[in-house]
Design goal:
Elements lengths: L7 E6 L9 E4 L8 E5 L5 E6 L6 E7 L5 E7 L11 E6 L3 E5 L4 H9 L30 H4 L5 E4 L4 E9 L3 E8 L3 E7 L2 E2 L5 E2 L2 E8 L6 E6 L5 E6 L4 E5 L9 E4 L9 E6 L7 E6 L2 E5 L5 E6 L7 E9 L5 E7 L4 E5 L4 E4 L4 H4 L17 E9 L4 E8 L4 E6 L11 H4 L2 H10 L4 H8 L7
InterPro entries: KICSTOR_ITFG2 (IPR031793), WD40_repeat_dom_sf (IPR036322)
Pfam families: Itfg2 (PF15907)
């Protein structure tokens, strides 16, 4: 039997709606712990940080006036640095890309000693549409003005981006991968340079464009080697695609996830050595499927979703016994954890006490959630590296962080599979229980009162 401990929650305020791809956990200041990044439809980038106390989560940094934010990514896009430095990349619906670079106090001191400033500026081609920002210092998280961070670089690309990825290719090349609402995936080569005074300059140059039949729900990537990667694409009609975008001779592998019958949210990720091999996990409406590296379906796991559909698929942490976890959320709040033994844990986060949906604090008893979750992610967060489930709610501008789940390493099993049939019948006979009585007890007929 697998057990889940009582759930601790933190509630944060968020003044606007958040799209599913505008929420992210990433280390943006290189302190070996993740921060929570939220991009809103009102153009705010919010960065929350958990300090020493795991329940002490504060708004740490913010940026304003970024347009209708659709997606966020964090990764090394500067090409002239010896040490990969995380850069925040924000895309809005108009197609503008904004970059932010956070530095530690020691790095800012070195910039000033070199004669530079922290002013936002760009030295780019005059044909590009640029956005500037006022200069603001970075100090304690209690000062609203000093919380704000400047845009280090901006460039106008193509409108209606949906998903943003940052990947390294061929050691020296950084790539920006953008999925668009017009059924295309475009890959841009980064020639962004970090200047001695702390500014970013350069541009993103279009390298590849792929037209995909039907809409694209999600894209993700997997490293093939130190020099290459592949893309994994999921579509609302149920298609699952994988291909190497940088290899002209690469073969596109495709399969069907749900018999072309569902128009619900689909999502796919790659998991290395999840079942002693690389596999692809997908969600489609109310189930998770496991595919082999050749995209042959090897497992089908139905998940009981009472209302709505599944809406989030994330890689979870690796436990002490090297057991990789996968986390899944549904729009009504049900959350599932699947391990490499295909054990499933289901829990409902205590949203009712924070959102007013329901009259009691028993979150399991409250099942009247309809499309309550608009964005979901999970992962390690804060100075304590606590594993969290993070939900953005639709109706009251709240962010719920669920943490301190303790999951045992015990595997579930089945009594009939653990005992031989003869031994089981003997034990039942000693207890004066026949097989028929056991069946009636476990599966009562609908006609019985």
């Amino acid at each position: 039997m697998t057990f889940v401990s009582p759930i601790n929650t933190i509630t944060l305020d968020c003044s606007s709606n958040v799209l599913p791809n505008a929420i992210l956990l990433a280390d943006v200041d290189m302190n070996k712990s993740n921060e929570l990044l939220i991009g809103t439809q009102d153009g705010e980038l919010l960065i929350f940080k958990s300090f020493r106390n795991q329940n002490n989560v504060q708004l740490w940094r913010r940026a304003l006036g970024l347009g209708f934010i659709t997606t966020i990514a964090v990764g090394p896009v500067a090409v002239n640095t010896n040490e990969p430095r995380p850069i925040i990349c924000v895309a809005n619906a108009e197609g503008a890309i904004h970059l932010f670079l956070l530095r530690s106090a020691g790095q800012r001191s070195r910039v000033r000693s070199a004669g530079g400033t922290l002013h936002s500026g760009n030295r780019n081609d005059s044909k590009m549409q640029l956005y500037s920002s006022t200069t603001m210092s970075i100090a304690t998280p209690n000062d609203d003005e000093q919380q704000q961070i400047p845009v280090a670089f901006s460039q106008q690309l193509i409108c209606n981006p949906k998903i943003l990825l940052i990947q390294e290719y061929n050691e020296n090349e950084k790539q920006l991968i953008i999925s668009y609402c017009d059924r295309t995936i475009r890959i841009f080569t980064s020639i962004i340079m970090e200047e001695f005074d702390g500014r970013l300059s350069g541009r993103f140059v279009l390298k590849h464009a792929f037209n995909i039949a039907d809409q694209i729900h999600t894209i993700s990537s997997r490293r093939l080697s130190n020099k290459d990667y592949e893309l994994i694409v999921s579509q609302p009609c149920g298609n699952l695609l994988r291909f190497n975008p940088n290899d002209e001779n690469s073969r596109v592998l495709a399969t069907d996830m749900c018999d072309y019958t569902s128009s619900a949210w689909t999502e796919a990720i790659a998991l290395d050595k999840f079942l002693e091999d690389t596999i692809y996990a997908t969600i489609c409406y109310d189930h998770i499927d496991i595919f082999s590296s050749s995209l042959n379906k090897i497992h089908h796991i139905p998940l009981s979703v009472k209302i709505g559909h599944l809406c989030g698929l994330r890689r979870g942490p690796i436990t002490d016994n090297y057991n990789q976890l996968v986390t899944i959320s549904s729009v009504d709040g049900d959350t599932f954890i699947v391990d490499r033994h295909l054990n499933v844990i289901r829990f409902r986060p205590p949203l009712s006490s924070n959102t007013g949906c329901g009259g009691t604090n028993d979150s399991i008893a409250n099942t009247n959630f309809v499309d309550q979750i608009q964005a979901f992610t999970s992962g390690l967060f804060g100075d304590n590296n606590m594993f969290c489930f993070i939900y953005v709610l639709t109706h009251n501008d709240k962010i719920i962080i669920v943490h301190s789940l303790e999951i045992s390493n015990s595997r579930t099993t089945n009594l009939s599979s653990a005992l031989s049939k003869i031994t089981l019948n003997e034990k039942l006979k000693q207890a004066d229980i026949t097989s028929e009585k056991l069946k009636d007890l476990l599966h009562p007929s609908s006609s019985s009162s």
